[in-house]
Amino acid sequence: MRTLTIVLLLMITQRTAYSKQRIFLYPSSEGIIHKGFDTIAPFMDYYPSKNPSPHKTAVVICPGGAYTMLAWEKEGILPAKFFNNHGIDAFVLHYRLNNQQQEGHQYPAQYNDLTTAIRIVRYRAAEWHIDPEKTGVMGFSAGGHLASTATTIFQKVNPEATNPLEKFSSRPSFSILIYPVISMDTLFGHRYSREMLLGRIPSEGLVNNISTEKRVTAETPPVFLVHADDDHGVPPQNSIAFYEALKKNKVPASLYIYDHGGHGFGMAPGDALLNQWPLQCVQWLQRQGFQ
After folding, report:
1. Predicted confidence band of residue 169 (pLDDT cuts 50, 70, 90)
2. Can you give the CATH number for the domain in which 68 is found?
3. Contact status, residue 136 vs residue 290, Cβ threshold 8 Å
4. Looking at the domain assignment, is residue 7 inside a domain?
5. Residue 218 pLDDT exceeds 70
6. How many domains does the chain have?
7. Fewer CB near the terminus (10 Å): N or C of the chain?
C-alpha cells in the first residue's frame, strides 16, 4: 500500500511539474481550417517553467514532420520539458499541415501560424512573466525550415493596427534550428517538405523566396544550429549554407555538426555524444544574454 501511494504521488508530481495550457491561435476557425482534412484548429501548448523571474525567456517550438505530420513528443514535448528544467518557458506549436493529395495547407499558412504564435506570446508576456525581448523560436527538420522562415522574414510593428497582435513584431529574439530543412532548391533541399509546403510545381520565384539561406540579413537574430554529418534525409549542407549566410552578414551564430546521428535524433537521450547539444544550446542562450 505504501509503495502504491509513493508511485501515485510521483505521478501527480510529474504531471504538475509539466502542466500545460492550450492556446488556440485564432478567434475563429472560419477560413483557417479545411473541413474534412483538419481535425483541430492551429494551437500551441504552453509549458511554463518554475522560474520565479518576472522576465523569463520563452521559446516557441516547431516539431518536424515534412509539413505533413508532427513529431509531437520527440520534437515538441521533450524539448519543452528540458527547457522548463532550465527555467525557460516553452510553447509547442501545432501548425497547419498538408498531405500527398494536396488537401491541406501550403505556404504561407504555416508561416502565419508561427508568426501569430510569437505575437501572442509577446502580447500576453506580462501575464506569463515573460520578457517579450527574450522570445525566440526553435524548429526540427521541416519545423526548422518554418522557424528559419520566421527568423528571416519579419512582420513589423504596426502601431495603428486594430488587431492588437499586429502591434508586436514577429521577429524572434533568437533561433534554434535542429537538422533544419533550409533550402527549397532540389540540389540539397528536402524534396518532400518542399512539395508539402509549396505544391508539386512551385514557381521559381516562390522557391527562391522561401529558400531561407537567401533571406539572411544583418537584422537576422542570433542562431544556434545542430546537424549530423551522416544525415542523408536533410544533408548538413542546409545548416552550412545558412551558417555561411549568417557569418557573411555578421550575425552571431554557432553550428555543431556531429559525426553521426542521421536524421531525426531529437534530444538523443540514448547517445552520450549527441545528447550534449541541448545543454550546449542552453549555454549558448546564456552567452547571448537570454537567461
Report:
1. very high
2. 3.40.50.1820
3. yes
4. no
5. yes
6. 1
7. N
